[in-house]
Specification:
- The protein has two domains: 58 residues, no CATH class; 165 residues, no CATH class.
- The chain is 48% helix and 14% strand.
- The chain is built from eleven helices and six strands.
- α5 crosses α8.
- The longest helix has 21 residues.
- About 12% of the residues have low confidence.
Length: 235
């Protein structure tokens, strides 16, 4: 019996008056949530088994090796790097612990994508009540800056994408975004501004999970080396 079937059998289908009870609270883990709403031990065991299987899948996922860029798409790579440097140069917070590049494709049938650069701080992390420091869902500045979708669309057309292509376009964008991030780390951009190493994560690719972050490779090497994350406090 699944977790939600278990809850339905035990409590009945929640009505509108129960919505507050059944909504996850800020900073609440999935395990804490199911315990609070009354999931059985069997359902909890099923949940943890599924989570363990997902983590194992992330750790052994070889699909990320498909993210390969020869660095020739300099227009997009440099645009992403300039955007990131622009954001980093304006950050006044002294407790930034992570930054992230995100990509959102346009609506169906649109050949467009929006690439944004966000960051989070230690103080906002505590203020938001989150308990999973590296499973970041609430950024202090969710869209500090972004590349215009029309710019990315023009690049996509030049690459030969003449219609909406979810998987293909996403992989093409991320291949160059990953190259940009690798070059930013190699140029020590975060050390220059913050005086220390701060990891730049890749949205969707790393899935907000440290196991996945360590396992992701592109262009023949780790996107973020384990030693860098350890220097940044990830154990």
């Amino acid at each position: 019996m699944g977790i939600f079937d278990d809850l339905k059998k035990k409590t009945g289908a929640p009505d509108l008056g129960d919505m507050e009870k059944y909504a996850m609270r800020p900073g609440e883990t999935v395990e804490e949530y199911f315990k609070r709403v009354g999931a059985s031990d069997d359902a909890m065991a099923e949940l943890m088994k599924t989570a363990a299987a997902m983590n194992a899948s992330f750790a052994s996922n070889d699909e990320t090796d498909e993210y390969i860029s020869d660095g020739s798409d300099r227009e997009l790579i440099e645009a992403i790097k300039d955007m990131a440097k622009g954001v980093i140069g304006t950050i006044e917070d002294d407790d930034v612990y992570a930054m992230q590049l995100n990509c959102e494709l346009g609506a169906d049938e649109e050949l467009s994508a929006y690439i944004s650069f966000a960051y989070n701080t230690e103080s906002y992390f505590k203020e938001s009540g989150s308990r999973e420091r590296w499973n970041i869902c609430c950024w202090k500045d969710e869209e500090a800056d972004g590349l215009d979708a029309e710019f990315v669309a023009a690049w996509a057309k030049a690459k030969g994408f003449d219609e909406y292509d979810d998987e293909g376009l996403m992989k093409a964008v991320y291949a160059d975004a990953i190259t940009a991030v690798q070059e930013l780390h190699e140029e020590h951009i975060t050390e220059e501004h913050f005086g220390r190493k701060v990891p730049i994560l890749i949205g969707e690719t790393e899935l907000g999970d440290t196991t996945a972050i360590w396992s992701v490779k592109a262009n023949g090497k780790d996107i973020i080396e384990k030693s860098l994350l350890e220097d940044c406090g990830v154990k």
